[in-house]
Amino acid sequence: MPAHAVLGAQWGDEGKGKVVDFLSGHADVVARFSGGNNAGHTVMNEQGKFALHLIPSGIFWPQTVSVIGNGAVVDPDTLLREVTDLERRGVELKGRLLISERAHIIMPYHIMLDRLQESAKGSRAIGTTGRGIGPAYSDKASRSGLRAADLLDLRALKPRLKVILEHNNTIITRVYGGEPLSLDEVYSKCVTWANRLAPFFGRVERLIHERLAKGQVVLLEGAQGALLDLDHGTYPFVTSSNPTIGGACVGLGIHPKQITGVIGVFKAYCTRVGSGPFPTELKNEVGERIRHLAQEFGATTGRPRRVGWFDAVAARYSTQVNGYTSVVLTRLDVLDGFHPIKICTAYELDGERVTDLPGGTAEFERCRPVYEEHPGWDKPTASVTNHKDLPEGARSYVERLQELIGAPIDIISTGPKRHETITVRPVI
Ligand code: GDP
Ligand code: IMO
Ligand code: MG
């Protein structure tokens, strides 16, 4: 029963979209299990360049079925836009996309509350994507969320929505001084969503179990990254779901023994969008150079990403939480021509050297990186598809990262396009 998870191993935007598109040639089912349209997964293949927010990145392979699990939160407007855009660009979705009836819906008041909460936090804002993710998961946990299944029973929905909306309107108006939303308008959105999305809602959990029982390959597409995990990340500067391996089980209703491969996707350096501790951040011209060279701007919000050297302390922690059986290293080409390249192997915290991640944010903010230097390389790695064609310096950098991460680097990505990939050892 081979399910393989592809997980963000740092702070998101590691290149999961590219990797899932690349690996999906071997997959029968590709499943999202957490997060929502805070994710932006870029895919570049013969069909063009795509930035996907909800629909799994395996959708371009005709033999695959794409599913969105119960652990994800779905903004129906974004989903409909994505469906329309993909169909317009020739990607057939009929019978190939299924969304769990248990998935929670991101409602207009969630989006409004996300923005109001962020502005109320002032300088302590998390820097969320403003997509309503936090409020939607909060409602889920407080048992006042609406699920896809609720859209399929509109008559029962209206009285529930009335109570839920009254509660949210009270918070919007009395706590934040915002404008209340009208029940009729929100309800009529639900009617539109129900009409257009009903064919896509179904029993995802059953589909996955049936496919696994047949021995088919299921690829679990992570969103965000380990350091943004609600429990294991740099709380409170995290997202509101679990992008780590446990989230894959909960978010799809599968059990740990069904997951035979855990593939961690790391960038050859680090980036982070939004606020929160980032010990290796480069607030200098080297960081600027990487940002512009690599076009490190968010696929969802267009915000400039913060850039830093590879953080092996965070990487080891990420391996500890997820237990990678394989690693994919992306964006190696971005470091072509950089001398030296630094790797953070420890932190200095209040005069002491530490090699594990502090649990408290204040402590983490005080951590200073301890670097080892790597000489770098001159011959380009960009677009290289064969391991032996990598310059010696790049090979030794990859080997050193592998040692520090503590899991085998089986795939190296040398460009954004599907074929710009080196397979050192097949992972599926
Ligand atoms: P995701 O959220 O993890 O799917 O990553 P994003 O799509 O948000 O950001 C990754 C960016 O890196 C995208 O613009 C990709 O096209 C690009 N990318 C992925 N792999 C590589 C690579 O190996 N080299 C380069 N230069 N770009 C890459
Ligand atoms: P992908 O899947 C990078 C960050 C936001 C913010 C924090 C909380 O493309 O890797 P949220 O809107 O989730 O409440 O924001 O998490 N964040 C991401 N950063 N990549 C992502 O997704 C992210 N999804 C959320 O920037 O700091
Ligand atoms: Mg992204």
Structural class: alpha/beta
Task: Report how far the terminal alpha carbons are from each other.
Answer: 12 Å
Strand runs, count = 20
Can you identify the CATH superfamily of the largest domain? Adenylosuccinate Synthetase, subunit A, domain 3
Query: From the coordinates shown, what is the CATH architecture of the largest domain?
Result: Alpha-Beta Complex
In DSSP terms, counting alpha (H) and pi (I) runs of 4 or more, how many helices? 13
Helical content, roughly? 25-40%
Describe the largest sheet. 10 strands, mixed
Number of domains: 3
Name of the CATH class of the largest domain: Alpha Beta
Structure description:
α3 packs across α4 (133-141), α3 (108-121) packs parallel to α6 (154-175) and α6 packs across α7. This protein folds into 3 domains: 3-101 and 208-262, Adenylosuccinate Synthetase, subunit A, domain 1 (Adenylosuccinate Synthetase, Chain A, domain 1, 3-Layer(aba) Sandwich), CATH 3.40.440; 104-197, Orthogonal Bundle (Adenylosuccinate Synthetase, subunit A, domain 2), CATH 1.10.300.10; 266-423, Adenylosuccinate Synthetase, subunit A, domain 3 (Adenylosuccinate Synthetase, Chain A, domain 3, Alpha-Beta Complex). A hairpin with a 7-residue loop joins β19 (409-413) and β20 (421-423). The chain starts with a strand and ends in a 5-residue tail after the last strand. The chain has a 10-stranded mixed β-sheet with strand order 9-7-5-2-10-1-11-15-19-20, sandwiched between helices. By secondary structure, it is α/β, with parallel strands linked by helices. The protein contains 13 helices and 20 strands.
